[in-house]
Amino acid sequence: MDDTIRSNLSVWKRLQDENYFENHPCYKGISDFGGQEAIQAIEWFVPIREQMKIVVIGCGYGRETLRLAPLVDRVYGIDVNETILKKAVDYLAARNVNNFTPVLAEAFAEDVPEGIDLVFSIVVMQHLTRDLVRNYFLHLAKKLSPGGGFVVQFLDEPGVDHEKTDASNTGGGEPSISWSPWQLVDLARNAKLQFVELRTQLVTEAALWHWAYFRKQE
Ligand SMILES: C[S@@+](CC[C@H](N)C(=O)[O-])C[C@H]1O[C@@H](n2cnc3c(N)ncnc32)[C@H](O)[C@@H]1O
């Protein structure tokens, strides 16, 4: 593991140990807000099926998993440490979601099984280094079942240096990094995935969200 990856992971472990969600101005604690946008985004590209096994990268306390898990067979939620994964298990169990498997980020390549139908992620890729993102795509692409794919959201802000490898820190302490459409094409090619489509939303005055749909090659 190189120094930028190690340092990004340790920032996030610290943020979670310091109650990131409870202190964050947008989340304002661990609560049942949103999550529906995850379902909507997936259904832009693929129908959700009961038999699906889904991986959520950066599951946090389980906000989107709460909506997703009742619709599918199993959700594997990856996050940085036991602190946040325990919160996710407790949050989801208290809401009768019992098909959630917590996975530590540092062990995902071993602990996520083969036969994954969908890899999903929202508000996470912008907080990781490019190498961490490439690593997730490379390893999880190999675990996809035939017809499987990725539906993942990326941030793109104006005036940023897209070539920058690592993420600078924003006011909140989280790293923030932009991805251009062509960098997403490279990401798909690097993981030997078929780049199917991007769907782009203007989410604030100065932020685009690219929803990428990449599929396992036939
Ligand atoms: C802004 S939160 C979003 C959480 C959740 N997706 C949501 O929308 O509520 C970013 C999440 O990514 C997690 N994260 C950071 N680095 C990660 C990594 N290398 N692998 C997996 N998750 C990571 C953080 O711990 C945090 O839970």
From TrEMBL:
Alphabetic keyword roster: Transferase
Matches recorded under Pfam families: Methyltransf_25 (PF13649)
Domain Methyltransferase positions: 55-148
Domain of life of the organism encoding this protein: Bacteria
Name by which UniProt lists this protein: Methyltransferase domain-containing protein
Organism for this UniProt entry: Bradyrhizobium iriomotense
